[in-house]
Write a structure and sequence with these properties.
Layout: E1 8-11, H1 13-17, H2 27-39, E2 44-49, H3 62-68, E3 76-80, H4 84-92, E4 97-103, H5 106-113, H6 117-134, E5 137-143, H7 156-168, E6 173-178, H8 185-195, E7 204-208, H9 215-224, E8 229-232, H10 252-261, H11 270-284, H12 291-299
Parallel strand pairs: 1-2, 1-8, 2-3, 3-4, 4-5, 5-6, 6-7, 7-8
The chain binds 3-hydroxy-3-methylglutaryl-coenzyme A (HMG).
Amino acid sequence: MSLPTTVKIVEVAARDGLQNEKHFVDTAIKIELINRLSAAGFQNIEAASFVSPKWVPQMADGTEVMAGIERRPQTIYSALTPNLRGFEAALAAKADEVVIFGAASESFSQKNINCSIAESITRFAPVAQAALDAGVRLRASISCALGCPYDGETAIETVLDVVKRMQDLGVQEFDIADTIGVGTPLKTARLMEAVATLVPMEQIAGHFHDTYGQALANILAALQVGVSIFHSSVAGLGGCPYAKGATGNVATEDVVYMLHGMGIHTGLDLPQLVDTGAWISAQIGKPTNSRAGRALFLKNQ
Ligand SMILES: CC(C)(COP(=O)([O-])OP(=O)([O-])OC[C@H]1O[C@@H](n2cnc3c(N)ncnc32)[C@H](O)[C@@H]1OP(=O)([O-])[O-])[C@@H](O)C(=O)NCCC(=O)NCCSC(=O)C[C@@](C)(O)CC(=O)[O-]
């Protein structure tokens, strides 16, 4: 078993982390969060989501957020784009990367983006073409890859089918998302290996929610089969509006603590992440969901 020596972490707190917050988080707080995350050294930060404000009101200020952040030249600032309208807004906001987001479950696709999987691919096709024409990086997220809150188990073949259809659109990075955190390590490893029969391992990302406490174990399992991109959210912020009971993403501080402890390079400054996790938790009035974040914060008091 040879583990990757370097891992890219895509920090999703400002998007996935905040999108489900009941009270509107001020634009200035979102901007400061992203600036703090940039300073901690991320290569990729999800900064906005150009979706319908009726569906996800928390993300309605994407244009202002993108205009207000201080951009670190080495960082890719991404935005979710469900359709051409979202793409045009993302392009105008100078997103470095756009994310089309589908699902490996019919029911979740309907609940999340109001269309079937097949219809979603048709809707994504012009977005993908526009991104390629504009020279904007194109990423795709596949929700419910390890299970769906409505349809139960997800078959590996269904995930592969969606990956293949997204690959045909020219997608450059594939986020295999455990939206409700039901995956377990051996299943995760099998799924990642299966996806890698279609696309290079370097283009596969693991996006794990920690609802059942499996996220770090799933990351380790994915690392062991060669995955080297993971998504996480500082303070473990998050939840999905269309997945009842889903908790946040795996906490960035926990992932970085584990990876650095294994001698794996992330380019991230853990003390700064701990401070940022404590800061955003105070801003939204919630305790952190990061075990490592809490322990390191208290140790330094
Ligand atoms: C996809 C749609 C738009 C279809 O929504 P729809 O209702 O089927 O489509 P529509 O075209 O009829 O649009 C409805 C309304 O939204 C407007 N609209 C339409 N598009 C846009 C746009 N881009 N920006 C702003 N407004 C837009 C449009 O103008 C219209 O406004 P109205 O006429 O009613 O006033 C809707 O279902 C939607 O916005 N869904 C977003 C859902 C979402 O953001 N979910 C969370 C992100 S995915 C996620 O978190 C999972 C992930 C990625 O983290 C991985 C994982 O863990 O699973």
